[in-house]
Amino acid sequence: MSDAARKDASLAVETGRTSIPRVSLTGGRSVGNMVFAGLVGVAAVVVILLIIGLFWELGDRSLPAIRANGWGFLWNTTWDPPKRIFGAGTFIVGTLITSVVALVAASAVGVLVALFLVEIAPAWVARPLSVIVELLAAIPSVVYGLWGVYVLGGFIRDFLGPWIAQTLGFIPIFNGDPRITGIFSACIVLSIMILPTIMAVSRDVIAAVPGSQREGVLALGATRWEMITMSVLPYARSGVLGAAILGLARAVGETLAITLVIGNRVGIPHTIFDPAYTMASVIANQFTEVENEAHRAALVEVALLLLVITFVINVIARLLVWRVTNGQNVTVQE
Amino acid sequence: MNRDAFVATQPRYARRKFFDRVMTGVMGAAALVTVVPLLLILFYLVRNGVGAINLDLFLLDPSAPGRGGGGARSALVGSLIMVGTATVIGTPIAIGCGIFLAEFGRNRAGTVLRFLVDVLAGIPSITVGLFIYGLMVLPVRKFTALAGAAALAIILIPILARITEEMLLLVPRSLREAAYALGAPRWMTVLRIVLPTALPGIMTGLMLALSRIAGEAAPLMFTALGNQFLNTDLLHAMDALPLRIFYFATGPYESWHQQAWAMSLVLVAFILFLSLGVRALVGSKVTIRQ
Question: Does residue A128 or residue B277 have the better pLDDT?
Fold first, then answer.
């Protein structure tokens, strides 16, 4: 309240214009309420400070690297710690390929499953199916990695990989030498890992489409699939897009599973079976054994880049999802 | 107009109906495809893990590289200690933040905070690890379990805060009004009436958050580091189950791989128990939108 306003208020009391005193039934500004509001307010401030601190700390620690590497860090493909030459180009390419492929695959399946759950499946199917997808989200990253290396990797090297190389080998990117670890394994593992996120958020968004939207189209004689494409999907469009982008954020930040299955090699991959690096996996793989301070700072710069990218992706995704659900029941699942 | 007559007026009806059936099948197939990976992962976990589960796994520390034998005691104990510490650090902040969102968050400030909490939940856990590394490890030049627990707490806070908010908002207004009518001030109403009513839901949310951080290794790599020996001191490097799985999975020894499978089986069983079992115990009245 400004000084002038306060003066007005006290004037009003003196001249008797406010006849009813403001008594709050809930204790108003009593000491207990103030202490309570203060305490929970502190908790809220801590959360805000955490986010600011994250950016501040990573920015501060990577400042020497930002100065030394310049903008070229974003596209240079040489990463040579002993010679102190640092370019994150190959990591950015690795992250881009794996997460975009996973995004496309998981979105296609995830949205179809979400539609199945909301529009078609009876409760006795939808419930257990939802639980199964939630379990998929509950399995730790490192377990996906273990499975990806010792089960999926062998399958790709011995069966799936040779078959793909043989049938699609005339296209250069498929004409590779299938290994246990590589981009192809990483894409498959990543698709499975982000599927629950995309599915759960799409389900919430699709369930938020008002029934009248469906009834209107059905009354005009549409089949169920026509109802989905003509009324449900257009209405939920931005939310479903948001769900996919949330999955993208998860894919970009995914660390341990990818570190285990992608092969960890610096260099631009030429075929889908080549080993590569992602931004997250290079940090996990190299940070504990850095060669020099410049190397450490460069890795923190990669982390800062990763943080900024996922932050932007998350903000876009949340805004899109909120537009459909009005901030209610937004999935907090990571 | 009977059905045949109707179809006759709609020459494309049969085709549309057919396409509708096909797409229904496609959606059902997508649902089936989703189930397959989970079954495959669970199957191989049990097949490869069961053989290496024995008493040694729980009673012995990891052996020196290549020696064979040994167990995962240090990792099991370390995980329990760090997850417990993270709960102690994170829960008050998360519940406080959740109460703030539910009680004072029906305005623009609340919307912004809710948004930030959601964004915090989406930040990669490895960057959280680096953040705590700079904040708590570099200044003292020492990897500590406390730093690991702090990193886990940062991951727990946004998850639990949002669940707490949703659970508090589910409490019927009439309960709150009854408390006010008896003259209870707002703080007492929230702490003695609303919060206890929402507690089963919040506890379920806590279990889900715990099942999440119990499986996290990325934030621990640069904070708790891992430790081959049993350590219960929060101020020293400490092992954790997911960390040990990662180290053993990347190692060259067959015995390590087997133990990695066994530890994964234990970890996944623990996590499934937390997320499924507790939900069943609390009862179906509480539904969590995870």
Answer: A128
Q: At what angle do helices B254-272 and B13-49 cross, to 10 degrees?
A: 120
How many residues would you count in chain A?
334
Q: By three-state DSSP, how is residue A218 classified?
A: helix
Contact of B212 with chain A, judged by CB distance below 8 Å, is answered with yes
Strand, helix or coil for residue A75? coil
* Pick from A142, A224, A250: CB nearest B242: A142
| List of chain A residues whose C-beta atoms are within 8 Å of the C-beta of residue B250 | 260
Tell which residue, B252, B215, B249, has the closest CA to residue A260: B249
Q: How far is CA A23 from CA A28, A29, A30, B17, B183, in A?
A: 7, 10, 11, 65, 12
Q: For B105-115, what is each residue's pLDDT tens digit?
A: 888 889 899 98
ipTM: 0.90
Take residue A162 and report the two structure tokens written for it.
Answer: 């040779």
Q: Do B41 and A143 touch (CB under 8 A)?
A: yes
C-beta atoms of B225 and A223 within 8 A: no
Test A139 with B260 for CB contact under 8 angstroms: no
Q: Where are the domains of chain B?
A: 3-52, 56-282
Q: How far apart are CA A93 and CA A183, in angstroms?
A: 11
**CATH level 3 topology of A66-325:** MetI-like fold (1.10.3720)
Joined together, the tokens standing for residue B232 give: 């219960």
Q: Which of A46, A54, A255 sits opposite B93 (nearest CB)?
A: A46
B90 to chain A, any CB pair closer than 8 A? The answer is no
Q: How far is A268 from chain B (nearest CA, A)?
A: 23
What is the token pair recorded at A305?
Answer: 């880049």
Give the C-alpha distances (Å, rounded to integers) separating A334 from A8, A90, A331, B118, B286: 51, 26, 8, 9, 21
Distance, CA of A267 to CA of A320 (rounded, Å): 35
Domains of chain A by residue range: 66-325
Q: Give the minimum alpha-carbon distance from B68 to chain A in angstroms, rounded to a whole number.
A: 19
pLDDT at site B14: 82
Whole-angstrom Cα distance, residue B91 to residue B199?
Answer: 13
Please, what is the average pLDDT of chain A?
87
B interface test, pick of A49, A50, A308 with most B CB neighbours within 10 Å: A50
Residue A25's pLDDT band (cuts 50, 70, 90): low
H or E, element range at A73:
none
Q: Round to whole Å and give the CA distance between A151 and B42.
A: 12
Count of C-beta atoms within a 10 Å radius of residue B22: 11
Question: Nearest CA to B208 among A311, A200, A314?
Answer: A200
> What's the rounded Cα separation, in Å, for the pair A104 and A83?
38
Residue-wise pLDDT tens digits, A267-319: 888 889 999 999 999 999 999 888 889 999 999 999 999 999 999 998 888 88
Which chain A residue is nearest to residue B47, measuring alpha carbons?
Answer: A151
Per-residue pLDDT reduced to its tens digit, B43-81? 999 999 998 888 888 998 888 887 778 889 999 999 999
- Chain A touched by B43 (CB under 8 Å): no
**CATH architecture designation of domain B56-282:** Orthogonal Bundle (1.10)
Q: Pull the structure tokens for residue B177.
A: 């009004």
